[in-house]
Design goal:
Helices cover 48% and strands 22% of the residues. With 323 residues, the protein is an alpha+beta fold. Strands 3-2-1-6-5-4 form a six-stranded antiparallel β-sheet, with helices on both faces. The protein has a four-stranded antiparallel β-sheet with strand order 8-9-7-10, sandwiched between helices. Strand 2 and strand 3 form a beta hairpin.
Length: 323
């Protein structure tokens, strides 16, 4: 059995796996990115989605995993050109290719790459990209395999009413517009991996509102909803919106890459002071916070920040917190 036949069989298995499962769009893209990397001997694979004038890494595998959420200017990247020209583009040597974002390629160690457009209702909404740290890593058979895999994504996307809405809603809180707990857990894992890989600090901050239950009881849930939206606006104005999340009830999380815990505490103190000063609800809303440095285990880092938050709530109330 030759390599070409092996690849075709792998693609058929992928198609069967998708058809037989209940995978949502995001999970389907993740699976296809993984298969793309395997079939082309790439070091990493990415699904980039168009957001205004940028290309955003929405799915990452292999060496690309730490770069989830990375943004590239559409006008200065090979993936952006792929969208503009609506055709497959290949670079065998990114160091000598003026079409690529040279700085981004160096950052992710992409010496060669292939970009293929992803179509939704005859419109290019994103790109499937594979890359390698080896020059001229890809051949025509790799291109053929990727074209078949992007057809699978296109077929699956055709069942979604709006591609962008499906992706956004799966990771965002409908009430506040902030990323939700699912997005937080994914981002925490990615930022933890990045921090450990490059030896950089990362602080996890959890914020819990004080007096929120009383506002709900006295003024009703619509007033409580407005408080939560108000807190989200304050977080947005603090310029940490990309790393801030509503993770449940009246609890929010903020990830602070390249920030030591002492500096994270200062930032959290400023933010919670602004929340208290905003006089949300009936003016009685405050906020407590807990901070912990991220270690090698994202779950333990979250637990450490939560423990610190519990201590802060206990100090405030002189006993068990109100959550």
């Amino acid at each position: 059995m030759d390599a070409h036949t092996d690849r075709l069989r792998a693609i058929i298995r992928t198609q069967t796996e998708i058809a037989a499962s209940d995978l949502d769009l995001l999970a389907t893209m993740q699976l296809i990115a993984e298969r793309s990397q395997e079939l082309t001997r790439a070091s990493g694979a990415v699904v980039e989605i168009v957001e205004e004038d940028e290309m955003v890494y929405h799915v990452t595998t292999g060496d690309a995993t730490p770069y989830l959420g990375m943004r590239l200017a559409q006008s200065a990247s090979l993936s952006g050109l792929c969208v503009a020209e609506e055709r497959l583009l290949r670079s065998d040597d990114t160091a000598a290719d003026p079409r690529v974002d040279a700085e981004a390629c160096k950052r992710v160690n992409a010496a060669s790459m292939i970009c293929l457009p992803l179509l939704h209702r005859r419109e290019v909404v994103g790109v499937l990209k594979v890359y390698s740290g080896v020059v001229a890593n890809f051949d025509d058979q790799d291109v053929e395999a990727l074209e078949l895999l992007t057809d699978l994504i296109a077929a699956h996307v055709s069942h979604a009413t709006r591609f962008e809405m499906v992706e956004h809603d799966s990771r965002h809180d409908a009430l506040t517009g902030l990323p939700n707990r699912r997005a937080y857990e994914e981002r925490l894992a990615v930022e933890t991996a990045r921090a450990n890989r490059y030896g950089q600090p990362l602080s996890v901050c959890l914020i819990d509102l004080d007096g929120f239950k009383a506002v709900n009881d006295r003024l009703g849930h619509p007033a409580g909803d407005e408080v939560l939206r108000g807190v989200a606006r304050l977080i947005d104005e603090s310029r940490v919106a990309d790393d801030a999340f509503r993770i449940g009830g009246d609890e929010f999380a903020v990830l602070m890459p390249q920030t030591e815990p002492a500096d994270a505490r200062l930032a959290a103190a400023r933010l919670t002071a602004r929340i208290a000063a905003a006089e949300l609800g009936d003016g009685s809303i405050g906020a407590s916070f807990g901070v912990a440095p991220a270690g090698s285990d994202p779950e333990r880092s979250h637990l450490a920040a939560d423990t610190d938050l519990l201590r802060a709530k206990a100090r405030l109330h002189g006993g068990p917190d109100e959550r």
